[in-house]
Amino acid sequence: MPTPAVYVGPEDNPLLTEAVERGGGKVVALAEAEAVVVSGGHGELPDLHDGVRWVQLPSAGIESWVASGALDEDRTWTSAAGAYSTSVAEGAVALLLAGIRGIGRAARARTWDGAALDGVQGTLRGSTIAIVGAGGIGRAMIPAFTGLGARVLAVTRRGLPVEGAYETWAADRVGEVFAVADHVVLAAPATAQTAALVGAAELAALGSQGWLVNIARGSLVDTDALVEALRAGTIAGAALDVTDPEPLPDGHPLWTEPRAIVTPHSTNPSTLRLPLLADRVAENVRRFGAGEELLGLVDLSQGY
Amino acid sequence: MPTPAVYVGPEDNPLLTEAVERGGGKVVALAEAEAVVVSGGHGELPDLHDGVRWVQLPSAGIESWVASGALDEDRTWTSAAGAYSTSVAEGAVALLLAGIRGIGRAARARTWDGAALDGVQGTLRGSTIAIVGAGGIGRAMIPAFTGLGARVLAVTRRGLPVEGAYETWAADRVGEVFAVADHVVLAAPATAQTAALVGAAELAALGSQGWLVNIARGSLVDTDALVEALRAGTIAGAALDVTDPEPLPDGHPLWTEPRAIVTPHSTNPSTLRLPLLADRVAENVRRFGAGEELLGLVDLSQGY
């Protein structure tokens, strides 16, 4: 088995250096490198010579690298796509549980009111949770939800079976899930098909015991319809890591809505990203050395 | 199989009536009853004639019924002990997740600050969570924690293996868990042995990334030591459903401590209790009819 010669840069990063070695590689100067692990930046790359056959980018989304024109057809590119799924999924589970168990309300209290949470708490046990967009992130939520006694209805583009879900529906039936599920978690990409996917009708179908969680993109939800549904009690609550507009402006009604929890697009914080990136780097260096297919391969024709 | 004749009272309760029928019983007047399902109250019972062979009480703790002298040796008594475990366990999981993912802080924010949660978020994935007092409630947390990629170190009185825990320790080693575990969940009864179990030394051992969750009794934690540890950043945070003193007085430093989340002894809210009680009633009526051992048997000599 050859030992991959890998450059880590432009910034020194001990965790990524260690990851290269963990994957069976050795860390070398750029001039000697056959592979490059990009350790930071937003679109800038080290100068790549012809000997560099593979470049590992540090982010899951690579829009900025594509936009900068840095990606060429001369070598293999990998992103960190999927590497952060478990972290974002944990954040989504935390948001739904915090919502349904009244922890958002409790965190704002400054006095002991034993009855305050009595009427507003529900339980995930025995409930049906729809995960709209059961890709890597959505799928990573399933063991936690089933461990809490809920069952998962997955919605994917094509509707092929998703492990751990009791049923998987194709995206063309997504409008129906709001009436079937007790709670809905949005984890789908922002596309023309998902824009304003959740409006007044979907919220009415979700119902007064239902929670909506959005960790995808703000554009999936009609914010005005959501504000009205929360005010009226049409749904039990909403926990949002993404909003439209984003950032959510000061004074927006969602900041003071008792049924809402807002986190500032923080389900994938940098403190959790780096260890996960290091694991991905170690695995990809191992695969590179073994001649196996790399994780997170970039399709330049698709731009991701 | 005989059909148990069951009285539900003193209050009418459709959910409990339905549960009796679901368990294969029929609901009758008190005079014709061989079993009684107590539907409410705090220590008051219907007048029991000699034909009543079994009484199901509605609460898990039965101190008030024992204190009122209502429980006699003439028949079998069952409490709801264990029936609410899953609900309380879900609340504990919600508290730990909300803490470690910064949701308590986010819920208090009134402005979008993407960096605010960056340094404070951790993850349960790959962590070791000690459950101190792995009885029914503690054990019910294990599938959720393992589903989130954590492993559980259980502490029980005798240290017999607990399913799903990677290790179980006996209570005499409980002092060591704070150094071994990343996070600690207190779910043990309040006894002389557990009073002030968590003090300054245990919090120091837990460390600056560790969360403490208390859903047991406030007396297990030295509150002054906890306030100091939170202020100093000795631990990452504390999520408390029970406090000492309880109720926590207005103006107490825990109300405004950024690292703390306080819920008002609300992990077992009445809205969630009744459906779980109904399930217990249905199961016990079935067992009564089949001559099987009932769940939640009261030991009058022990008082629980």
Automatic annotation (TrEMBL), chains A, B:
GO terms for molecular function: NAD binding; oxidoreductase activity. The keyword Secreted does not apply. Gene3D superfamilies: NAD(P)-binding Rossmann-like Domain. CDD domains: 2-Hacid_dh_2 (cd12159). SUPFAM superfamilies: NAD(P)-binding Rossmann-fold domains (SSF51735). InterPro entries: D-isomer_DH_NAD-bd (IPR006140), NAD(P)-bd_dom_sf (IPR036291). Keywords: NAD, Oxidoreductase. Residues 95-266 form the D-isomer specific 2-hydroxyacid dehydrogenase NAD-binding domain. This is D-3-phosphoglycerate dehydrogenase. It comes from Kineococcus rhizosphaerae.
